[in-house]
Amino acid sequence: MSDTLPPCPECSSAFTYQVDALLTCPECGHEWSAEAAPADEDVIRDSVGNVLADGDTVTVIKDLKVKGSSSVVKVGTKVRGIRLVGGDHDIDCKIPGFGQMSLKSQFVKKVTE
Length: 113
Known about the structure:
The chain is mainly beta. It is built from one helix and eleven strands. It has one helix at 37-40; strands spanning 17-19, 22-24, 31-33, 58-60, 64-65, 72-73, 78-79, 83-84, 91-95, 99-103, 108-110. The strands form four sheets. The chain has a three-stranded antiparallel β-sheet, with no helix packed on it. Strands 7-4-11 form a three-stranded antiparallel β-sheet, with no helix packed on it. This is Alkylphosphonate utilization protein. Belongs to the YjdM family.
């Protein structure tokens, strides 16, 4: 039965089970709505779980080394007008002083204005 249920959105455990209208993860204890589970697969979230959308402003939460360069994108760098894409690096953006880059959503936090 667990092979037909989606994995846990918090810890990605495959051992989820259903209790009434909720899905539950036995490993981390997270509970979520069974109706929201299929739509949740396409949602890209930041490091603290905020849903990201095209055009959002985010800040970098840790120093990121730039591949092929000795430069570093510093903590707190504000990135405006992000674009969401598929794949491992799910954010395309222009970082001031660096130009066009791809970032992983796990290293950014959405700025709420």
